[in-house]
Amino acid sequence: MQATDNTSGRAMYWGTGRRKSAVARVRLVPGTGQLIVNGKPGDLYFQFNPNYLGGIKAPLETLGLENEYDILVKAEGGGLTGQANSIRLGVARALCQLDPDNRSPLKAEGYLTRDPRAKERKKYGLHKARKAPQYSKR
């Protein structure tokens, strides 16, 4: 859904991404390629980790738009890895709103697929989901 920013009249594109318990609400705004997460610069928020930062901007790089849109994010829950992956999904979904033709290259790269893996629950009698107590023969 395209919305307009009341203050500047610029077009904004929204996307929501989820991974494990992390949720990211992503806005794409025409700009210079900045990443702002929870009011902080993205490189500071993600501790200058190139894996997180590269993964977040990968959908934009696939389409050749890395310096044309600013990414504004409100991320909640999970850890840095879950948040980075949820932001990547949100960016990809926002790019699909920007132009429906963007869908097929993003889908081919796997950016529109939500990672369904989640933490397995702990079972009774075990220390964790699968870690059993040490076996004692006597």
From TrEMBL:
It comes from the Bacteria. Residues 119-138 have a biased composition (Basic residues). One of its GO terms (cellular component) is cytosolic small ribosomal subunit. The keyword Transmembrane does not apply. The keyword Cytoplasm does not apply. Keywords: Ribonucleoprotein, Ribosomal protein. One of its GO terms (molecular function) is RNA binding. Residues 100-118 have a biased composition (Basic and acidic residues). Coiled coil: none annotated. Pfam families: Ribosomal_S9. Residues 100-138 are annotated as: Disordered. One of its GO terms (biological process) is translation. Gene3D superfamilies: 3.30.230.10. InterPro entries: Ribosomal_Su5_D2-typ_SF, Ribosomal_uS9, Ribosomal_uS9_bac/plastid, Ribosomal_uS9_CS, Ribsml_uS5_D2-typ_fold_subgr. PANTHER family: RIBOSOMAL PROTEIN S9, SMALL RIBOSOMAL SUBUNIT PROTEIN US9M. HAMAP family: Ribosomal_uS9_B. Belongs to the universal ribosomal protein uS9 family. This is Small ribosomal subunit protein uS9. It comes from Fischerella muscicola CCMEE 5323. The lineage of its organism: Bacteria, Bacillati, Cyanobacteriota, Cyanophyceae, Nostocales.
